[in-house]
Amino acid sequence: MFDYLEYIRTRNFPHIWCSGCGDGIVLKSLIRALKKLEFSKDETVMVSGIGCSSRTPGYVDLNTLHTTHGRAIAFATGVKLANPKLHVIVVTGDGDATAIGGNHYIHAARRNIDLTVLLYNNYIYGMTGGQVSPTTPRGDKASTAPYGALENSFNISGLAEAAGASFVARGDVYHATQLEKLIAKALQKKGFSVVEILSPCPTAYGRRNKMAHPVTLMEWLRDHTVSITKYEKMSEEERKGMVETGVLYDEEKPEFSSEYEALIERLKEKK
Amino acid sequence: MSENSEQTMLMMQGNEACAEGAIWAGCRFFAGYPITPSSEIAEYLSRKLPLLGGKFIQMEDEIGSMGAVIGASLVGLKSMTATSGPGFSLKQENIGYAAMAEVPCVIVDVQRGGPSTGMPTLPAQMDVQQARWGRHGDHSIIVLTASSAQETFEQTIRAFNLSEKYMTPVVLLLDEIVGHSTEKVVLPPKDSVEIVNRKQPEVPPEEYLPYRETEDLIPVLATFGTGYRYNVTGLVHDETGFPTNDPEKIEKQIIRLSGKIEKHRDDIIQYKTFMMDDAEVAVFAYGSVARAALRAVKDSREMGIKVGLITTTVLWPFPYDVILEAAKSVKAIIVPEMNLGQMAREVELGVRNQAEVIGVNRVDGNPIPPVQIKEKIKEVV
C-alpha cells in the first residue's frame, strides 16, 4: 500500500478542510507525484498564500512557507532565485493568485521562473465565507453576489499561457489519477508551470448554486470535463458548458533562474 | 599590504555608499522596484551583485519585491530592498510578515515628502513614525538613519548586522539629501569591519524547534534546504512554527516579538553628544539635519551661547534615557526636523516634563539651514 504518511505532518491533523472539499484529493495526488519523482524532501520548498488551499503546507513534511495574501509567487521567486537547486512548489487559489496576486502570477509567467504552481480553482473565496472571485462563473451566486455574478470570469490557464508560462495544464479532483500525472509533468518542467485544479467548494459555492451535496459537485466535474484531445474534435455546439482538461500548453523557453546563473558564469570568465 | 588591511578614499553618492555597504555586509540578494530618490541603490547592485555571485531582481511591484527579499533570506542569502515613501507604504504588510516570522532583512527608505506621491525629488523626514508603526499589530523594530555618505556606508553594514543578530527586519531611513549628495567616503580596511551572520541550529533536525524560547529571546532559523524542514507562517505560531490558538502561547509570542528588541536596547542604541557638559540648551537631530545642527551649535558656541548637541543613528528603539539625562541639565531641547514634529513627540516622552521641547520644522521641500536652527537657539536662550 502506498504510504502517504511519509509526506504528512500528522501532528497537524485533523485538517481544516470541510467535508466534501476536494483539497485533500489534490494533496494526495501531489504526494503520489512527489514520491514517483523521488524529490528530496529537504530540497523541496512549498510556498503558499492565504486561503483554504494555502493551508496545504502545514500538512506536508517539506520546507514550508505560508505567506501573505496573494504573495506566494513573489516569495517563491526569492526562494528559487536565491537557490536554484531547490524545487519550489506554489500552492494557491483563484482569489489568491489571480485577484490580489494577479500581478505576480503574470510576471512570474513572463519571467518563466522555474516554479510549479498548483492553482486550486473553487470559483469562490472559500475561507472567508464564499465571496465572489475572479473565476466565479457569470450568473452564479456568491455571498457578495447574491443576485448572481455580473462580471465576466477569468480563464486562468489561458492567462498563464498568454503571459508566457512554459507549461499549463488543467485537471480536476474527480479525475485524481490524471491529476497526479499532470502534477508530475508540471514538477518536471523546467520553467513556470501551472496546473489549474478544479476543486469546487460544496460549503461556500455548492450550497448557493443548487449543488450543495459534495457528490453533486463531483458528478458535475465528471460530466462537464473532457480531455483536450477529445475537446478539439468536438463541434462548437458540443463544447458548450464543457471544460477541457489535460496538458493545454507545453513549450521550451529560457528559464530565468538558470539564465541568471549563466550570467554569473559569463561574468566570471570575463574577469 | 593587502587590500584587506588598507583603507580607500572615494567620492560616492549616498545611495552608492548604501549599496557598497550592503555588499560589505554580505548582502547577496536585492529585489526592488524603481522609485525616486532611491533607484541608484538598485542600479548599483544590479551591476555589482552578479559579479559576486549574488542575485538582483527588479520585481513587478513594491509588494512583490518585499516578498522576494523574505523568500531569499530564508534560503540563506542576506537580502535587501530599497524604496521611498509610497513604496515603503506598499511594503508594510510584508515587513510585518518578516517581523512576525522573524526573518532578517534590510529595508532602505530614502525619504521624500508626502503623503501620497508628494515630493519625489525633495527631501523630508516624514517616514520616521511610519517606520516604527507602519504595520498592524504589536511588535518592535529597529530603525537606523544616517547623515552623510560615510555614515550611510557604516549604518548599512550595521543594519545587516543587527538584522542577523536579532532576526528582525531593520529599516534604514535616509533622506533625499543624504541619498543624492556625492561626498568623500573612507572605506575602512576590510578586515577591520565586524560582520555578523545569523546562527544556525546546533541540534539535529529531529530535536530542532525554530522558535524555541531562548534566554536572549532570539530564534534560530535554519536555512531552507539544509535538512531542517520546518514551517514559517505569518499566523501566530508556537515554538514549532505551526499556527496556534492557545492564548498562553499567543501571548508569549507577541510579548517576545517586542521583548527581543527592548531587552537589547543598550546594545542597539548609538548616539553622540557634542558640547553637552555645560550646555543650557540642547539640540537633538538626526539624518541630514544633524549636520546643519552641528554647524548651528558650533556657530552659537563661538558667540558664547552654551548649547550642546545630541545626534543619533538609531531612531528605534528610541534613546529615551539619553534624552532624560540631558533634560536634567538643560532648560530646553530643540528638535529640528523635516516634518511637523514626528520625533519631537518621542523627545517629549523622554524629557518627562523636566525640560521644554521646541520644534524647528520644515515641510516645504527645502533642507533646514544652520541659520534657522541658530536663530531658534538664540531665541530660546
What would you note in describing this structure?
The complex is a heterodimer of chains A (271) and B (381). Chain A has 271 residues and is α/β, with parallel strands linked by helices. Chain A is built from 10 helices and 10 strands. Chain A has a single domain (15-270), classed as Rossmann fold, CATH 3.40.50.970. Chain A has helices at 23-37, 72-82, 94-100, 102-111, 156-163, 176-188, 214-224, 228-233, 236-239, 256-270; strands at residues 44-48, 63-66, 87-93, 116-121, 124-125, 131-132, 167-172, 193-198, 225-227, 243-250. In chain A, helix 1 crosses helix 6, helix 3 crosses helix 4 and helix 4 (102-111) crosses helix 5 (156-163). The longest helix of chain A is centred in the N-terminal third of the chain and has 15 residues, at 23-37. The radius of gyration of chain A is 18 Å and the shape is globular. In chain B, strands 2, 3, 4, 5, 6, 7, 8 and 14 form an 8-stranded mixed sheet that branches. Chain B has a 5-stranded mixed sheet with strand order 11-13-12-15-16, sandwiched between helices. With 381 residues, chain B is α/β, with parallel strands linked by helices. The longest helix of chain B is centred in the middle third of the chain and has 18 residues, at 149-166. Chain B is globular. In chain B, helix 1 (14-25) runs parallel beside helix 6. Chain B has helices at residues 14-25, 39-48, 62-74, 85-101, 128-133, 149-166, 176-180, 247-262, 265-268, 289-302, 320-327, 344-351, 370-380, and strands at 8-13, 27-32, 55-58, 78-83, 105-113, 119-123, 142-145, 169-175, 182-187, 231-233, 271-274, 281-285, 307-312, 314-316, 332-337, 356-361. In chain B, 57% of the residues are buried. Chain B folds into 2 domains: 3-192, Rossmann fold; 270-380, 3-Layer(aba) Sandwich (Rossmann fold). At the A-B interface, strand 2, helix 2, helix 4 and helix 10 of A face helix 3, helix 4 and strand 10 of B.
